[in-house]
Each structure stands twice: as structure tokens, then as C-alpha cells.
Specification:
seven-stranded mixed beta sheet, Aminopeptidase
Length: about 150
């Protein structure tokens, strides 16, 4: 399974995955927030800053990144497709499309948060290092930085 740019035609399958994993993402607690995410994903798709991995036509992994802010914005994989290298595939492709001569940032869960075990290990594997403790969507997070 290879990472590819998400297109607007993928949005329904993309959103099925996002709804399936929304419980694990601060900022996606309500129907309204999920609808806002849909609009965001479509904007990112239009700028070729949305990646997905599909199994047949079903989206099983997603990643949004911002070239302007040089950051990974959102990364999620279907629970039944985890531990298959999908997140690594998505992150590798995103990093190919970001400016490696500048810091690349991502926000993830804090060390003591059980939700942070897999994403923190992934980012560290790619060379990201821990930075400041932050809060996003009212949830305690930590910024990670990949330096040039």
C-alpha cells in the first residue's frame, strides 16, 4: 500500500475513516467539528497537501500537512490497519513534500498519555525530537521538531 495524494473524490471514504477514529483526536468531538474537518481536508486536497493510503478504494490512512507552516497537521490510521507501516509510508511521503532545510513540526500526545505511545515512537523513528509542552483543542499535547 502506497501513500498518494488525496483527491476530492476520496472525501466520503476519507471521512468514514476520520469518523471511525475521531474519538482519539481532540477537536473532533462533535458533528460540527467533523464537518469543519471535512472542509479543511477538501482545502488541503485542492493544494496537494493531503495524503492517503487506500486498500482497494477504501481509505485506511490519512495525513494532512502544511507547506506554508512546514508541519504535519493530522495523521490517522484505521485501527485494523495499524502496525502495517501505513503511518510510516504517509509520513515519509509528507516529508518529501516539506522544506527539509527548515524545522518541520508536529503536535502529538504527551509522554504520560497512553494515546501517545505509537505516534511518539513513529516521530522519534523519523528523527523528530521533543520540544515544548502545549495545549491544543483544550487537550495537553507536545510539540515535536525535525531539524534540518
Amino acid at each position: 500500500m502506497r501513500a498518494q495524494f488525496g483527491k476530492s473524490g476520496d472525501i466520503d471514504s476519507w471521512m468514514k475513516l476520520v469518523e471511525e477514529i475521531s474519538w482519539n483526536f481532540p477537536g473532533l468531538e462533535t458533528r460540527e467539528k467533523i464537518e469543519e474537518y471535512r472542509e479543511t481536508a477538501l482545502r488541503f486536497m485542492a493544494k496537494d497537501q493531503a495524503l492517503c493510503v487506500k486498500e482497494d478504494a477504501k481509505v485506511v490512512g490519512v495525513l494532512l500537512f502544511s507547506k506554508k507552516r512546514n508541519m504535519i497537521c493530522c495523521l490517522g490510521v484505521s485501527p485494523e490497519h495499524r502496525r502495517q507501516g501505513i503511518a510510516s509510508e504517509l509520513l515519509k511521503k509528507a516529508l518529501e513534500n516539506l522544506d527539509r532545510t527548515k524545522d518541520i513540526t508536529v503536535s502529538t500526545f504527551r509522554e504520560e498519555d497512553e494515546k501517545g505511545i505509537a505516534p511518539r515512537a513513529l516521530y522519534k523513528k523519523f528523527g523528530f525530537s521533543e520540544d515544548e509542552l502545549i495545549e491544543e483543542f483544550g487537550y495537553p499535547n507536545q510539540k515535536f521538531i525535525l531539524r534540518p
